[in-house]
Each structure stands twice: as structure tokens, then as C-alpha cells.
Predict the structure of Crotonase/enoyl-CoA hydratase family protein.
Amino acid sequence: MTYSCFDVQIENQIAHIILNRPEKRNSMIPAFWTELPEIVRDIDENAKARVIVISSTGPHFSSGLDVTSFVKPDIADPKEKKAAEIRAGAEFYSAVKNMQQTFTALQNCRLPVLAAIQGGCIGGGVDFITACDMRYATEDAFITIFETNIGMTADVGTFPRITKLIADGLARELAYTGRRMPADEAKSAGLFNAVYESQEALLAAVMSMAAEIASKAPLAIMGCKRMMNYSRDHSIEDSLDYIAIWNASMLQRDEIFEAMKANAEKRAGDFVDLPPIRKNIG
């Protein structure tokens, strides 16, 4: 399938989603918000891969929301203009909720999602990468919660997530000032897993990491993601109970034995892929 904002490649159990509008700094036009969750859900629900890598093209990962594509024309008729003003709040709320769900699709996906970031990761780009499981970057990369600089409060996912990834005070500093956080600082803060000299080196390293993850038992990796997301949002006591219940129902001894045997024989494990997700009928 052809998309407006992305190219998709699937090979060796790795799905590679590539932002493909470098001439527009990979800004997020309306199609972006529908295409991304559609792609992610298709990969996940149809068990097309074991890992997802997201990368970009051009000098910048993403310049964030393309606000020009959301500007509505002036309404001349006073009655229609008044009606539009009354509806504006509800329409804005609905639009933001839909955009939030675009990035939540990455969080809810059963597969690990790795982001490879070059250049600027601005505004909505920060919402994007904080919804991923792991983040890697080039030396020239930077993030900025840019919404503050244009009189807005970031609303598509940055704040609920970034405060779980870096120190609260640092997250507040970035939010209140809108300043750039360069790659080396982001790595020191724990936001970036690693930093590389070039985009070529970055992609090679991220694909190598993705291949390593893809070599593990898919059900075990799914369980790790599920448990870590749950533990992030719940107490230790609740999380311990949940992992016990999870393994009581999901643990597969055959996969454990195969992993142990493969390790002993120094070969790749022969693991069962995740099943496709059965959609509700009726």
C-alpha cells in the first residue's frame, strides 16, 4: 500500500516505517495522523513483524505539526461564523483526542518500537518519540517542546510520557522554556539510549538492535513490554500481582526449553510468532 507520509519495508521480522517528506521537514499533515496508526495496527494485528523501527529522511526527524494544513478559511456569513465559534471547542477537543490516539497506538502495539532520530525533533516530534520504547539519535539531533514558544501547551502526548522518562524538574525546564535539548544531554538524561556520529551509523546500530530483539521469543518480548508499561502506571504491589497472573496464563514451557537449547547450541531459536489479533465480530 502507498502512503502520503511514510514508506514501509518489512524484512527479517523487522518492520521499518520511514517518514518520507524531507522537503517539508517531515511535518505532520492530516494524513500523518491516520496513516501512522493504520500502519502500526496492520503490522501488529496481522503479525507481520516482531519489531518496529521508525526512522526519517532529510536533515530533520520531524518539524512537528503542520499548522498551516489545519487552518480553516474565514467565514463571511455572521450566522455561520457564530455557529463555527460555538463548535470550535468541541471540534478542537475531538481533533486532539484523535491525534493523541495516533501515538498511543505505538504504546499499545504488542511489538517493541525503536525510534532513530536525526536533526530536529520538534513539537509533535517529541510527542512521537516519547511514545516509542527506545530512542537512538545522531550527534546533531535535538528535541524541543516548541509549542511553548508559539503560545501553546503541548497536548498530544509529551507531558504524560516525558516525565516518566527523565527527571521531573528537567522535563519542566524543557516545557517552560521551549529550549533545545541536544543529543548528548538527552542521552545523559536517559531520553536517548545511544548517540551516533552519522545517520548511516545510527540506522545500522538500530537495525542491529532490532535484529537482536527479533531473535528472542516474541511472546516473552510482548510480555516484557506489557509488564513495563503496566508497572510504569501502577504500584509495585499491583505490578507484581499482574506479572504473576500473566505468567500463570501466558508462560510457554516449550519456548523456554527452545531458548535454553538454542543458547546451549549457539544457534538462533526457532520460536512461534505472535498470532494475528482476532477482531470482534458483530
